[in-house]
Amino acid sequence: xxxxxxxVGPPPGRMMPVGLMCTALRPVLGRVVRxxxxxxxxxxxxxxPYETADFVIVPKELPFALHLRxxxxxxxxxxxxxxxxxxxxxxxxxxxxxxxxxxxxxxxGDAAFFSRDLxxxxxxxxxxxxxxxxxxxxxxxxxxxxxxxxPPGRAVLNILRRRSxxx
Amino acid sequence: MNETSDFSAAGELVCPAGTPAALRTAVDxxxxxxxxxxxxxxxxxxxxxxxxxxxxLEASVAYAHARGARVLLALNTYPPAGKVGLWRDAADIGVxxxxxxxxxxxxxxxxxxxxxxxxxxLHLSVQAAASSPEAIRYYCQHFGVRRVVxxxxxxxxxxxxxxxxxxxxxxxxxxxxxxxxxxxxxxxxNWLTGQSxxxxxxxxxxxxxxxxxxxxxxxxxxxxxxxxxxxxPEENAGYPTICKGxxxxxxxxxxxxxxxxPVSLNLGRLLPELMAAGVHAFKIEGRQRSKxxxxxxxxxxxxxxxxxxxxxxxxxxxxxALTEGQKETQGAFKSKKWR
Amino acid sequence: MELxxxxxxxxxxxxxxxxxxxxxxxxxxxxxxxxxxxxCSKRAPFFERELPEVIARLERAGKTxxxxxxxxxxxxxxxxxxxxxxxxxxxxxxxxxxxxxxxxRGRPHRIGPFxxxxxxxxxxxxxGQGASHVCLPVEMPSEAIAAAxxxxxxxxxxxxxxxxxxxxxxxxxRCYHARAHGRIKDNCQFVCEEDPDGMPLSTxxxxxxxxxxxxxxxxxxxxxxxxxxxxxxxMGVSHARxxxxxxxxxxxxxxxxxxLAGHLEAGQxxxxxxxxxAGTGFSNGFYHGAAGYRRIERIGAAASx
Lengths: 167, 339, 305
Hints:
Chain A is 46% helix and 16% strand. Chain A is α+β, with helices and mostly antiparallel strands and 167 residues long.
């Protein structure tokens, strides 16, 4: 298990303290991951050897990172402050929109890696398994997630996409 | 086995699928044929989280057939003695699932399918390394092979010469990973990792790959603890495959790409010449790549082939962003100088 | 189990080869000697004139001579060389490429390590097509060697395993010797002759791991299966192959012969071999199903026997 990357610090000047933001996101993210798991049970077979592994996903321009553990019975997704990352097996870092596109099968992870837009560390096989599991999902996970929250959800997704697109 | 499969149209586009979703993507993007494999050592892309179960294969064949596309099952590794049963079972499952052809490399596997499933169509994998008319004819004569996937080491004039002397179709790679070694004859991965390309279906397995980031943003790519390459902060990167690593030799103390630099094959501009030389099918590499890669590459080559068939100049979009090292080559196909 | 001497993989001068085989004929306790250019067809003409005399010399000394065919066959001269070899009545031939099988048309022959005879199904097929002897691929682990030997034994054909020398790891259409010197294959000027034991390749932060030999890539360390000889014998492996390296091969063969005859313990034999191959490491990882470069100590050998 790798130690958290201390070089990743919190971005300055946000309205809400990051810790509070992470706590506020907790029920929402929990609902998201349970929903994805319920709708796409087949993906767990592809990641079975790593179902108790800890993945940390670091969107470069967001104040927090995501901590994912793809356990079929109790999938976990939570926001964590970037300066307090949990120990992880694998870490994936890139622009938020790129990460979103990767989840949705709109971008190619290898290409993003070749161009150095995507950085991975820790257990490479775990990352490859997660990528392949997600890639077998038809349709947009992001859209599905946004739809879960109705018009406000879709609005948030649009804002995120626009904001990331500008960077 | 689907006896009605129509493989007759030249310019067939043979596309990769590592998951059922990628297979549907390839079919929807215009693939004539899609190749895939089981989730075990019976194929050369035995990667974590990738490939098909028997049930997934059956459903995928149905999806493809309903849309006029074919499914080719890769059984293109070499069973080690004592484990041949796994390959035989895979062939039997493939027949039951109704796949349109098997891509084989091992003579024992080819012989088994030819004997047990005489109606089955056999394609000779690039892993068989058949690069002369005589070698190809051996497989045609004894196992009824109907198509050879040529090693990526021949020039177009050489391909034209081979076509004149063989009784089967030719398939060539046109895009994707550019392996440097004669495929099916490479034990480099096994030397460093203990996992064999021929017997286990892996090449630089992810389980042995690590990326070490330095403080200045540079990155070392390692295989089983051996440094295969290092990239500056802004430099485009590649997989840590041994044949694309940078090494030091007595005459090259500065370090150099002893075999090849990280680069991908793209023969988009040579498609008309390849067709004129008698190439029947174009293969896109990348079962380990994403749906997004499959969608872009397949739809682009679909348009190009359709343009050529309509007598127009093919108009290929820029695919360099998808290539390793963000660099393309025409490899051996354009000139003997590559050797 | 009988010792054999595999074909010389490197581009040694005709004179060096002639002297080498003169010593082999007179002094070396091996029953079978494989001759011929297996790696690069450009090198073959240099020794072709000498071959008949070398064959005669070795046969006079009581050796079985076998001519080995090219591993890679693509160009016209390679196709012709393979067809020419396949047309010979004697000596015996060892085929390393399917084009040779095609040309041989079922007449008796041996199967070389580049032909990928990995399993009992393929071995049975090849035996049915005239193969009298199979040299297994170097990367096979002991369990597979055992199963393959059993099958070969049942078919009444010989089975051979490399027990000494650099592991052949890959071949390519591109010449990496030429590339290292800024040349291409057609203009190589036979620069590979400068490296009679291959050109070392090191990682940029570590030691040598590979050797370049023209279009071939080999291991840096030598495969060495002294400890494993008894197990190989029990499995039914009939022949143990020594690959010629640029060391005192007479002495190397004597060490293996003494070990096989029980005159020398494996540990002592390895010490002696270490002295003969100073500066080069030994590996047996492939045999033990581990990374090829590894050296698994005796406990592993005992467990697998």
